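Collaborator request, handled under Task 6.
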Amino acid sequence: MATPAPAATPAANPYGIGPALHQGGLLAQSIFAILVIMSVASWYVLFFKLFEQQKIINQGKRARVSFWQAGTLRDGAQKLDKNGAYRQIVDDGIVALEQHDRLTDPIDQHDWVLNSLARSQGAIVSKLSSGLAVLATVGSTAPFVGLLGTVIGIYRALINIGRAGQASIDTVAGPVGESLIMTALGLAVAVPAVLAYNWLIRRNKSIVEDLARFANDLHGYMMSGGSVKPQVAVAGRSGSAAGVRPTTSSAGTASGGVGATTAGPTKV
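Structure tokens returned to the collaborator:
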């Protein structure tokens, strides 16, 4: 009885990315490695910046409630996350208040504290913007890196045609496939980087606006001796929001929250 013939194993695809890189040589492999490095760098920056942004957003949510209900500026600062963005603004504001009386050349306290808070915000914004240049660079250069691989693949296809004397499919399929793969890789690296850059920029803008509002409220509180501060929702007995805490009482005294003082020197 004859034994059945073994099933034929499927032939390997000679036009995949592996054979294309092998045929392309060191130059094609180098371009592929550059694109891979660009992709890894852009995804790393995306996730790292998202984590950093979300951390500041969470700090802002806590600062809007816990900080303005503290007794003094220092007590409110202690309720904020250590080394956090909002804690940095408050600490810099307290330092500015303390340093103003030591100035030998008189300067308006309003301007001195305002400039200090602006510098603090600038440092935070600079930190938020760090790393975004990587995404911008990858998004703008990755297509051209892929295009370089495309040019090299087409050049190799022309060389093969010249050697063979005719443009047969088996002569140009490998180099042309290599060029198309490089084009696709360049776009696959660039598009996510551009989308991530625009998304992070938009989130940064929202965070900067929240920081500016907080710094403005803090500046108003400091310059009014505690009688001007934002309205803060307070919890009622049942745990739900019972209303909004008024900014000042009828006598011009803060009805609660940070300082709870009349107009005059700010408690720190």
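The cover message to the collaborator said: "Confidence is low (pLDDT under 50) at residues 235-257, 259-263. Residues 17-228 form one domain. Please let us know whether this matches your experimental observations."
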